Amino acid sequence: MTRFDDLADAVLAGGVATADDALDVLRATDDELLALVTAAARLRRKHFGNTVKVNYLVNLKSGLCPEDCHYCSQRLGSQADILKYTWLGADEAVEQATAGLRGGASRICMVSSGRGPTDRDVERVAGMVGALKSEHPDVEVCACLGLLKDGQAERLRAAGVDAYNHNINTAESHHDDIVTSHTYADRVDTVNRAKEAGLSPCSGLIAGLGESDEQLVEALVALRDLGSDSIPVNFLMPFDGTPLEGTWELTPGRCLRILAAARFVCPDKEIRIAGGREMHLRSLQGLALHVANSLFLGDYLTSEGQAAEADLELIRDNGFVVLGAETAPAEAADSHDPSKRRRGAGTDVPANA
Hints:
353 residues; alpha/beta; ten-stranded parallel beta sheet; 13% strand; globular
């Protein structure tokens, strides 16, 4: 038994992980990493079994944002080479969402850039949600449109939206170092508006923004206190052309520790491996699924993810099933034909080394 098993026992018995507990998780040594994952996996299995919830992003409006979030490729003044376009039409939004549903997603996340929606924008999204649910009645829809004003959360709920995402992104004590065009309180207010309207609150963070261990823990405890049902854990993708370009603070092990801390602090909440997982977890993505119980399928807002089939293979190969599917699909015996060597010894082609 390790101290992390003792912590898991305490949480499973109804205890609450403290800030000091979470700091201890973040500071686990490399020698302790597998033991930490094993302990956190007990909580994951208790609450979510062997299922993985698959989410799919549809970027309804890309770029052209007036906010100054330092981490964001869509921010005001960003020189990042990304797609920029105004609102998708309802037909295209439904088409994009349907592609994700075909890939195994059960939740569609409909996202737009900007400070927050106008009432006209809310009506536009309401129409998209109605069209999507008329074709796919069982789909969950999470909207992410920015800061909400009076009545907008209620309108979205009436239109059939199930959840609302608005990430706090970082600790309150670190917020003003990464954005000045809105406050931390603005973000918390929007999460509370969503909750009060009956929408499931979805709020998470971005790791790798220059925050300290203490600030990461501060953010996780804040998410617990906010009652976030779904917690996306993003890892900074430092786009060229943004203030945080060239920022590389994360290692695969660090990312695993962050996910484990999230699991101990919020044991019964959906912990989602979100943007940057391929870049930062790399070969440890499979281990991460033993801590987290959710991921995004395919691409993100302005960056490409790994192939959707690779995501589904990742789930299957680690002994999990997609939420909503009774069993993992059988893997065809010939799905991975041997790749015949045509380089290196005996050839004129350079070796693979």
